[in-house]
Amino acid sequence: MQTTRITVLNKISREIFAMLRAGFPLILWLTATSLVSAAQPNLLLIVADDMGYGDLSCYGSKQVATSNLDRLAAGGVRCTDGYVSGPVCAPSRAGLMTGRYGSRFGFEHNLSHPESLRDEFAGIPLDEVLLPQRLKELGYRTGIVGKWHLGEAVAGHHPCERGYDYFFGMLGGSHAYFPTVKKNQLLRNHDKPTEIRTPYLTDWFTLEALDFIKPQQDVPADEVTQPWFLYLSYNTPHGPMQAKEEDIAKFAHIHDKTRRIYCAMQHCMDVNIGKILDKLETTGQLDNTLIVFISDNGGSVEVSHAVNAPLRGTKGTFLEGGIRVPTIYHWPAKLPPGVVFEKPVIALDIMPTIVTAAGGKPPADGATEPRAGRRKNNQPIYDGVDLVPFFLGETKSDPHETLYWRMAIRGAAVRERDWKLLRPESQLPQLYNLADDIGETNNLIAQHPEIAKRLLEKMVAWETSLERNPLFISAPTWAGYNKRLYDKTYSLEQPEPDSEVDIWSF
After folding, report:
1. What structural domains does the chain harbor?
2. Where are the membrane-spanning stretches (predicted)?
């Protein structure tokens, strides 16, 4: 019954959406959304790795034409002020999977395993409930393809022990793009692959994703088709900088070699995302699939020659270029196309948005499972919100009045509406008004010490609410590297397609 009903609803909604695109009234869009949203949506979370804010054409790139990501943005909501909760990979992903700042449970650095640390804490602590666990309770089939980077020291850290029914990818933080049978760190669930399915890893991850999202076969008409959640965690365009020769050739006009390879990697990922969108469309699943696309942190200007313009900064800093990322939500059954959302949102919102869309009740402060040692009546504090009412204009306030970031020996930052207090470890505190100065070039702390003081007090109050000190931190040598990142001069303008100017080595 349910299978037939969903098929009919998808067919009706596609016809109504076609009429809407042809110029028919908005009431048809409302009719389509009410029909399709009656069924649980499929859920697709796509995460790029170290991708620059300015490296999508819908975010201003002149060198990389990302037609499929542009298609996703045009058909849904493109957020201009989308943030992640950490400026490097692992703590950002820890926040993504929990809906909580990683600093709350001691995960605010990239993973390390000092001798004094118990094995179970070299990853997301085992008492944290992750997004796929919540979705399994709602009847979802769950899968992850790609990069994990959230722990492997004990068996309980494995994705298949944290709520995922299926895993193909690597447990660590990076991987070569041309794996061989003898030299790779890939796993299918718990087993090593015995053959290379296709030579280039981004393409292989896409093939695994296409297998996972295809409709279930041989489901009796009177049984429910199980909805799915897929976390497609590309390692593109994280180093090592490796691309297919045919993709590199498309960017022969770019003079900087590293930038040329970066653009080729980015192009390849965009093409692969197009294959997934096409598959969802041809199988009648696209209208009622909630797709979220983000990068895990800002682009690495030094390593991969990413472009974060018009933002200053890079991966590893709390400048906007380290923490503000492209953020796209696409769900034709619920969200209207062509929305540009300019209020601050954060990747911590993905968990409550997805859980609510799936028909569940997202965790809230003091409203979930009790665990010893937590604040607020011994219960965890959650930091995200369901964004759909904000996107639809049903809720007029900002999703977040204040956002926070911290990383021991690297610094901290707090944003309150348009004001941002930046507290690097290697420089004096700085105050910026992002509405007037998106590139953070005009430090206003001398003119507005009262605003800086208020934001500092907010930061201290937030730090007081954290449940653990950092469980692991970066080696002391990172302090010098971090200083160099803040002292660096960054280009705030997009390079022209054939520009010969080196904007990465200043």
Report:
1. 40-343+353-367 (3.40.720.10)
2. none
> How many other CB atoms are found less than 10 A from the CB of residue 467?
16
Q: What is the pLDDT of residues 44-85, one digit of tens each?
A: 999 999 999 999 999 999 999 999 999 999 999 999 999 999
Distance CA 118, CA 122 (A): 7
The answer to whether 53 and 306 have CB atoms below 8 angstroms apart is: no
Q: How many CB atoms lie within 10 A of CB 372?
A: 6
Distance CA 77, CA 392 (A): 10
CB atoms within 10 A of CB 163: 20
CA dist 299 and 188 (Å) reads 29
Q: How far apart are CA 480 and CA 486, in angstroms?
A: 10
Question: CB-based contacts of 92: which residues, under 8 Å, 6+ apart?
Answer: 84, 85, 86, 102, 296, 297, 347
For the whole model, what pTM was predicted? 0.91
Distance CA 43, CA 21 (A): 24
Q: Is the separation of the CB atoms in 398 and 343 below 8 Å?
A: yes
